[in-house]
Amino acid sequence: MIIETEHAPILSMEKLTMSYSGTPVLKGVNLEVESGQVIGYIGPNGAGKSTTVRILLGLQQGYGGTARLFGEDIKTSGIAYKRRIGYVPETAEVYDMLTAREYLVFTGGCYGLDAVKAEKKGQQLMNQFGLANVFDTRLSSFSKGMRQKVLIIASLLHNPDLLFFDEPLSGLDANSVLVFKEILAKLAETGKQSFIPHTLWTSSRKSAIELSCSMTDRLPQTGPLKN
């Protein structure tokens, strides 16, 4: 059962710790995030950004502390909360032999969308990202940047309440970065939340970000991002 009150944060971490082979990666991370925020989780390589995301997604075991999504402790919860999440990993494979249309319809089906709705939403987002002319092209011919766009589109199909984008700007051209920022801003306006680990946030600092979490020695320093 999802325990969500009117004032419960959408995402919270309390004294979150994680070590690999005795080496600390996270040292007592504390963070609460309300709905309608875009979170830039910033830090150098190896600071624990991707590890944090894996914990929050329920993909990482062996951590200490408490992580909650929608008010529910993910250690003891079921999988219902995951239906409200969209995720783009730092590196991911797509089904090369499928066209973009086929891949998005397939992904939408995994989220419970019927083919018509998934295709319509996918085509709309493909248009926004400048990929309308390759909707029926096999993904095997797509560049890294084009694949990244398709992965972002796939994560948005089911209208999730919480999105995790791990290094989402990798391979994106300048225009697509602007489109991505506009989408984040619109999502925030409707109460959606985005959590974005990123090594450098230079090209996105002026997006609709209300709070940043900068990793310093695995301890987060939080505050509003300044343009």
The CATH superfamily name is P-loop containing nucleotide triphosphate hydrolases
**Which term fits the overall shape?**
globular
CATH topology: Rossmann fold
State the domain count: 1
> How many whole angstroms does the radius of gyration measure?
17 Å
Strand order of the largest sheet: 6-7-8-3-9-10
Please report the distance between the alpha carbons of the first and last residues.
40 Å
Describe the model:
It is a single chain. The chain is α/β, with parallel strands linked by helices. The chain has one domain: P-loop containing nucleotide triphosphate hydrolases (Rossmann fold, 3-Layer(aba) Sandwich). About 25% of the residues lie in helices and about 25% in strands. The chain is built from 5 helices and 10 strands, in the order βββαβββαααβαβββ. The chain has a 6-stranded mixed sheet, with helices on both faces. Strands 2-1-4-5 form a 4-stranded antiparallel sheet, with helices on one face. β4 (about 65-70) and β5 (about 70-75) form a beta hairpin. α2 crosses α3. The chain is globular, with a radius of gyration of 17 Å. The model is unreliable at about 1-5 and about 200-225 (pLDDT under 50).
